[in-house]
Amino acid sequence: MEERSVLRASQKLALSQSAVSHSLARLREMLDDDLFVRTATGMQPTSRALAMASPVRNALRTLETAIELPTFKPAISTKLFTLAANDFTTHVLGPPLVTLLGREAPSIDLIIKPVTRIDLAEQLDLGRIDVAIGVFSSPPSRFRTALLFEYDDVLIVGGSNKHERIDKTTLEQLSLVVVSFGGEQEGAVEGFISERGLARRSEMYDRAALEKMFGESDPLPRVAITLPHFLALPALIENSNLAAIVPRPLANVFERTYAIAIHELPYKTTSLEVRLLWHKRLDEDPSHQWLHEILRRSIERPLFAR
User: Fold this and answer.
1) Mean pLDDT of the 210-225 span
2) CATH number of 80-149+274-304
3) How far apart are CA 168 and CA 156, in angstroms?
């Protein structure tokens, strides 16, 4: 129909002229119509061929769309992604992520929901969350994960309360602020809350390492304040005698803006993995593959340096 020539059609299809002629003969027999008639100006379509052309062309386009690999163009996409994250990971990843989106995907929008106070597994199952960010323990097989970054804990104090070093004796005398996402009320086990087989970390400091250092005979440092989020920490400690145990990358972010000092703890804390978590049905979706990649690119490596 496009070429009006068996020879040119065969060249376009990368077939021999004979193969195209045989195929055309089979179509003529099947449809009981000449379809194309040889004339001085080339192969001209019959009325039956003209009537069939548009429906066949549309059907072929539909088939091509169905079987070709899906594509995603972030520069022109207006897609909306929904993430679940706590304020720690949002604080660390948010600014560089916004910069990358503005440069590479200016019309893509984000909704960031709290990783706490929702049934995270249910929201992922229902497709209401595209990817969750957090520390998870042995997710069920219907979910996929990928490492985003690792971190350990440090101690932060107000800038005017900076110590030469923090040892066990010094730590014992401090009043601490710690963050726990409601685990005490929700039945957390070893710092994790479990919902529908998905366990997420709720206690945002290494309590076990702290207790191990002091043992059973020595009194633990006083936990003066337990917060459900990290946001208020700098304001609480900046002009007080309080200290806080926080993730290292968050401490480095706080140090850029607030009058605080960072100290190494006198004991080793567990290195925790912050991971991306998504439902396995999204594995082959190119838009979600792009989302995971841009989240990984949002990590500022200097924030994790000692």
Assistant:
1) 90
2) 3.40.190.10
3) 15
